[in-house]
C-alpha cells in the first residue's frame, strides 16, 4: 500500500540522519534538551503533553525531521494558553496549531493518535509526506492547509470527521485516496492545483461547498453512489470533462456554481432524483454540449444556470414541468438555434436569453403568455426569429410586450406525447418535432394502416418531419435510439 511505502521512506530517512533520541515524560523535554536546541532530527519515546509541543514549537528552530511514533499524548488541563486560545488539551491529539508554519520535512505521528487539531500542520510548506495512522478519527480545520510539498494523502477508514480547509492550498498534492466514509467538508481540497486523482468510497454522502474548487488539473471524478449533497462551488474551476451522476439514487440538489468556470466540461448526466439545480451551476462552461438533459423533477431553471455556455444547444432538453426560467439563465448561449419553452412556464426573468444570437425558431408552448422580466431577449434579432405558438394564443403573443417583436406564427393544436418523460413528440403546424435524451439513430413513421411514410437516419437528439403531404390524423412512430432502445408512440393530431 502507498501509505506503507511512504512510512518506510520516512523511517529510512531518520535512520540515515544522526538525530537525537530521548525517553520523555510530560513536560520533561525542555530539561532534557536544554543544551541541544540546534537538533535537526529528533526521535521521542514515552509520554508528552502540550507543554512539550510548546517547547518544540518555540525552541527547536532547526528541527526538520520529527519521529514521535512511539509517543503517547497525555491530557493537560491548566490555566495557561499554549495554542489556539485553549487551556484544556485532549489526550491522543496533536494540539491545535502546534506545528503551524514550521519547516519540517517529515513527521511520523504517534501510532495511537486519534485527532489532529485545527491548523496543527498548517503552513508547513516543506512537509513532503505524512502517514495517517489507523487510529485517527478526526482531522481539524486547516490541519494541513498550505502544505505545499505534500504529494499524496491517504485517509484511513477510521476517520469519521474531516475539517473545513483541511488540505486547502496544498499546491503539489497530486492524489487523494480515501477509505473513509466521512463527508468531504467545505473547501477541504480547495486550490490543490496539481490534484489529478481522487478515490472516494461509494459510501461517501456529502461533498461540501468548494470541496475541490480551483483544482485546475482535476479532469476525472467518480461520484460516490451514496451521494446526497453536492455543495456550492464544489467543482468550480476544475477540468472535469464528464459529470456522470446517473447511478446516484438520492441526490436531490446541486449547489450554486458547482461546476462553473469549467471550459473542459462536455457532458452532464443528471440523476432522476434531482429536484434543484442551484444558480450558475454551469456558468461559463463553454464546451458543454447538447447531450445535457435536465430531469423531470426540476421545476425551475435557476438564475445564470447556463450563462456563457457557448456550445450548449438544449433544444428540447428542459423538462415539461418547468415553471420559471431565471435571470440570465441562457444568456450568451449563442449555439442555440431551436428552443422550446415548455407549456408550464409562467415567468421568464431578466435577460434570460440575452445574446442568443443563433436562435432561429422559438416554440412557445404555453397557451397563456408567460410574464417577462426586463430585456429577456436583448441582443437577439427578433424579427428574424420564428415564434411558433398555438392558434388560440397567437394574437395574445402578438400583443404582448417583447413577444410581439418576434415573427409570430400560428401552430395547429397539438399533443405532446412523452415516453418515460425521456422522449417527446409533438406537432407544430405541419412539423412533427421529435426529441430524446440521446441521439436518435432512426425514425420510422407509419399511417394508421401501417403504410410507411418516413424511414430516416437522424443521428442527433432532435429532428422534425414535415407532414403536410400526409393524410390522416393518426400516426404510428418508431424511434431507435443510440443506446439501442426502441420507442414506439401512437400520435393523434388534433
How would you characterize the overall build of this protein?
The chain is mostly beta strands. Among the domains are: 1-201, Ribonuclease Inhibitor (Leucine-rich repeat, LRR (right-handed beta-alpha superhelix), Alpha-Beta Horseshoe); 418-492, Immunoglobulin-like. Helix content is 7%, strand content 29%. It is built from 4 helices and 33 strands. Strands 28, 29, 30, 31, 32 and 33 form a 6-stranded antiparallel sheet that branches. It has a 4-stranded parallel sheet with strand order 1-2-3-7, sandwiched between helices. The longest helix is centred in the first third of the chain and has 15 residues, at 2-16. It is elongated. The termini are far apart. Residues 413-421 have low confidence and may be disordered.
Task: Give a brief description.
By secondary structure, the chain is mainly beta. Helices cover 7% and strands 29% of the residues.
Structure keywords:
mainly beta, Immunoglobulin-like, 4-stranded parallel sheet, 494 residues, single chain, elongated, 6-stranded antiparallel sheet, 7% helix
Question: Topology, please?
Answer:
Layout: H1 2-16, E1 20-24, H2 29-32, E2 41-48, H3 50-59, E3 65-73, E4 76-77, E5 88-89, E6 93-94, E7 106-108, E8 115-116, E9 138-139, E10 152-155, E11 161-162, E12 175-178, E13 197-199, E14 206-207, E15 229-230, E16 242-244, E17 253-254, E18 267-269, E19 276-277, E20 300-301, E21 324-325, E22 338-341, E23 347-348, E24 361-364, E25 371-372, E26 386-390, H4 394-399, E27 407-411, E28 416-419, E29 423-428, E30 431-447, E31 452-466, E32 474-481, E33 486-492
Amino acid at each position: 500500500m502507498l501509505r506503507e511505502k511512504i512510512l518506510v521512506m520516512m523511517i529510512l530517512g531518520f535512520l540515515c540522519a544522526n538525530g537525537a533520541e530521548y525517553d520523555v515524560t510530560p513536560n520533561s523535554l525542555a530539561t532534557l534538551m536544554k543544551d541541544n536546541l540546534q537538533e535537526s532530527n529528533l526521535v521521542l519515546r514515552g509520554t508528552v503533553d502540550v507543554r512539550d509541543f510548546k517547547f518544540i514549537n518555540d525552541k527547536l528552530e532547526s528541527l526538520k525531521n520529527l519521529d514521535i511514533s512511539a509517543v503517547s499524548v497525555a491530557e493537560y488541563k491548566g490555566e495557561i494558553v499554549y495554542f489556539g486560545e485553549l487551556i484544556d488539551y485532549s489526550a491522543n491529539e496533536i494540539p491545535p496549531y502546534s506545528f503551524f508554519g514550521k519547516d519540517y520535512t517529515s513527521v511520523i505521528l504517534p501510532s495511537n493518535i486519534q485527532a489532529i487539531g485545527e491548523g496543527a500542520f498548517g503552513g508547513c510548506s516543506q512537509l513532503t509526506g505524512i502517514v495517517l495512522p489507523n487510529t485517527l478519527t478526526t482531522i481539524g480545520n486547516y490541519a494541513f492547509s498550505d502544505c505545499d510539498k505534500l504529494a499524496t494523502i491517504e485517509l484511513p477508514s477510521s476517520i469519521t470527521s474531516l475539517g473545513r480547509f483541511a488540505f486547502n492550498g496544498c499546491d503539489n498534492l497530486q492524489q487523494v485516496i480515501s477509505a473513509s466514509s466521512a463527508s468531504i467538508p467545505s473547501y477541504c481540497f480547495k486550490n490543490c492545483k496539481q490534484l489529478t486523482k481522487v478515490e472516494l468510497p461509494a459510501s461517501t454522502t456529502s461533498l461540501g461547498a468548494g470541496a475541490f474548487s480551483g483544482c485546475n488539473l482535476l479532469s476525472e471524478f467518480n461520484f460516490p453512489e451514496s451521494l446526497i449533497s453536492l455543495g456550492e462551488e464544489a467543482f468550480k474551476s476544475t477540468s472535469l470533462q464528464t459529470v456522470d451522476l446517473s447511478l446516484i439514487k438520492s441526490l436531490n440538489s446541486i449547489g450554486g456554481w458547482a461546476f462553473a468556470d469549467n471550459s473542459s466540461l462536455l457532458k452532464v448526466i443528471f440523476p432522476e432524483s434531482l429536484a434543484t439545480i442551484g444558480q450558475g451551476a454551469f456558468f461559463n462552461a463553454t464546451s458543454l454540449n447538447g447531450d445535457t438533459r435536465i430531469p423531470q423533477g426540476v421545476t425551475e431553471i435557476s438564475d445564470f444556470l447556463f450563462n456563457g455556455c457557448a456550445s450548449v444547444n438544449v433544444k428540447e432538453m428542459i423538462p415539461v414541468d418547468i415553471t420559471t426560467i431565471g435571470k440570465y439563465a441562457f444568456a450568451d448561449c449563442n449555439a442555440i438555434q431551436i428552443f422550446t419553452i415548455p407549456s408550464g412556464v409562467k415567468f421568464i426573468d431578466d435577460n434570460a436569453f440575452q445574446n442568443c444570437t443563433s436562435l432561429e425558431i422559438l416554440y412557445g408552448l404555453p397557451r397563456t403568455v408567460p410574464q417577462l422580466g426586463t430585456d429577456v431577449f436583448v441582443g437577439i434579432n427578433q424579427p428574424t426569429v420564428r415564434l411558433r405558438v398555438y392558434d388560440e394564443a397567437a394574437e395574445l403573443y402578438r400583443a404582448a410586450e417583447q413577444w410581439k417583436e418576434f415573427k409570430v406564427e400560428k401552430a395547429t393544436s397539438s399533443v405532446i406525447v412523452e415516453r418515460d418523460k425521456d422522449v417527446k413528440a409533438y406537432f407544430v403546424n405541419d412539423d412533427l418535432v421529435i426529441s430524446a435524451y440521446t441521439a436518435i439513430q432512426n425514425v420510422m413513421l407509419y399511417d394508421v394502416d401501417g403504410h410507411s411514410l418516413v424511414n430516416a437516419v437522424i443521428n442527433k437528439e432532435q429532428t422534425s418531419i414535415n407532414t403536410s403531404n400526409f393524410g390522416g390524423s393518426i400516426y404510428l412512430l418508431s424511434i431507435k435510439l443510440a443506446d439501442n432502445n426502441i420507442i414506439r408512440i401512437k400520435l393523434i393530431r388534433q
